[in-house]
Write a structure and sequence with these properties.
478 residues, alpha/beta, TIM Barrel, eight-stranded parallel barrel, 15 helices, globular
Length: 478
């Protein structure tokens, strides 16, 4: 009997040993379902900003995760999640400049969920959205569908409930009385009005170490692929450089700065915001600026940035939608031409939650709201543009971007015309950027395909063209 027991034990051990490598192989296979971030992947990428709270009636990771396979139809390769962390209760913003402490009605106070950017715990999950397992499923599903996941990171400030307030008050900016303060405008010394958050003091190098470890947590434990840095320019560039070096020691990271500061691109960030370009787009749509202003801006970019720096192009994002208006409010009848324009430019185009569903309302920022997810006019347009961005090297927009050349036209203030080219592939963007029908000529010869319609187009230099208001064409060579 004893001998039988020994034999059985050996058999169990052998089976266990046999299965163990198999489990490791399965784990390795899962981890390698998506190659690490590379410039090659980013050249043809579309980025999607996910507002989990407002994306669905449930406002959960689970509800968003179900739709990730659909995002492939739009050419999305990077998912940027707005902050997913617990939100501070103290000084939580409500409405009309009030905080919840100003509201006496308990039921009314419950409506206000606070700003995503008033973080109570960098390594926690907002219970609104679900649990860690739900987040893990989101990341796994994105990776299985060929998409990277980056987290919104708020290094400039925390919420007033963050545990560092008690444990490390020295991490915060304090006034002459030793009181912790909200972020101040460095030019005026006055508050920005972000009263629901407390400013962090990066003169303290212990804060650098603590903040970097919080970022590493998400890479080590949940295999995320990078970060979007909120108000990146308000945090010392040297902090970002040392943090990114440590993060990259785990795996290659994709880093997006909410900034146009060229110094951030040297050793910290891959991509920044095209804020100035976005504002010019708004003003061109409103008739306040012309194509000549845009061409001057593109010349300025050439002299400001290094050749391999690149920017994110957008017609909307969470700030623009909630505070400055919908795409239709700001761009009106120019909306579709500007969306196509944002894809045709050097850089990476952004889809903010709801754009794909023709969203035409300002989403509430501190309360629950919901996007109406009905496919209308914009979905098929984004689908076509996403396919073009993914497949045509003439739209490469990262560190080895396709060239950009403004084309001469007879209406230099009203006709947007430029050529992108790489490896023999050409793309022409041509549009009437005015609210009236226009006859014009463009210096362009050759046979092209009108990408949106599929028609063959013969272009002859100085041929008279007539475009309706805000009409655009994307031409590609055979």
């Amino acid at each position: 009997m004893k001998q039988f027991s020994i034999i059985m034990a050996l058999l169990v051990l052998m089976v266990s040993c046999k299965n163990e490598p198999k489990q490791e192989e399965q784990k390795e296979e899962k981890q390698e379902s998506l190659e690490p971030v590379s410039n090659e992947a980013l050249e043809s990428a579309v980025i999607y900003e996910a507002n989990i709270r407002q994306y669905s009636p449930e406002g959960t990771f689970e509800a968003f995760t179900k739709d990730i396979p659909q995002l492939k139809e739009l050419g999305v390769k990077v998912i940027w999640l707005m902050p997913i962390y617990p939100i501070s209760m103290k000084n939580r913003k409500a409405t009309q400049g009030l905080s919840i402490e100003d509201i006496e009605d308990e039921e009314e106070r419950k409506k206000y969920l606070g700003s995503y950017y008033a973080i109570a715990d960098y390594t926690g999950i907002n219970p609104e959205f679900g649990e860690f397992d739900d987040f893990n499923e989101l990341v796994d599903t994105a990776h299985e569908n060929g998409m990277y996941v980056i987290l919104d990171w708020v290094a400039n400030h925390t919420g007033w409930d963050h545990h560092w307030m008690e444990e490390h008050p020295e991490f915060y900016t304090q006034n002459d009385k030793g009181e912790i303060v909200d972020p101040l405008n460095p030019d005026t010394g006055e508050s920005w009005g972000w009263t629901d958050v407390a400013d962090l003091n990066y003169d303290n190098k212990e804060l650098w170490e603590a903040m970097t470890k919080e970022m590493e947590f998400w890479v080590e434990e949940y295999n995320i692929d990078g970060f979007r840095a909120d108000v990146a320019g308000e945090v010392p560039t040297e902090f970002w450089e040392q943090a990114v070096k440590k993060l990259n020691s785990h795996k290659p990271m994709f880093m997006l700065a909410e900034s146009e500061d060229k110094d951030l691109f040297h050793n910290a960030f891959d991509m920044g915001y095209n804020w100035e370009g976005h504002h010019i787009m708004n003003e061109m749509a409103q008739g306040k600026k012309t194509v000549k202003d845009w061409n001057a801006y593109m010349q300025k970019i050439d002299t400001t940035y290094q050749e391999d720096d690149y920017l994110m192009n957008f017609v909307t994002n969470h700030d623009e939608n909630s505070w400055n208006g919908t795409v239709k409010e700001r761009m009106g009848e120019a909306s579709e031409a500007m969306i196509a324009f944002s894809y045709a430019l050097p850089g990476m185009p952004l889809i903010y939650s709801g754009l794909e569903y023709d969203l035409d309302k300002r989403l509430r920022f501190f309360e629950k709201d919901t996007i109406s997810k009905e496919k209308g006019k914009i979905w098929p347009i984004l689908e076509k543009l996403g396919e073009l961005k993914n497949q045509n090297v003439a739209l490469h927009g990262a560190k080895e971007a396709a060239s950009y050349e403004a084309l001469e036209t007879s209406e230099e203030e009203k006709v947007m015309a430029f050529k992108r080219e790489k490896n023999g592939q050409e793309l022409i963007y041509l549009s009437n950027f005015s609210d009236a029908s226009l006859n014009f000529t463009v210096r362009l010869d050759g046979e092209y395909i009108d990408y949106m319609s599929g028609a063959t187009v013969e272009m002859e230099e100085n041929e008279n063209l007539e475009f309706k208001p805000w009409e655009y064409r994307i031409l590609v060579n055979n």
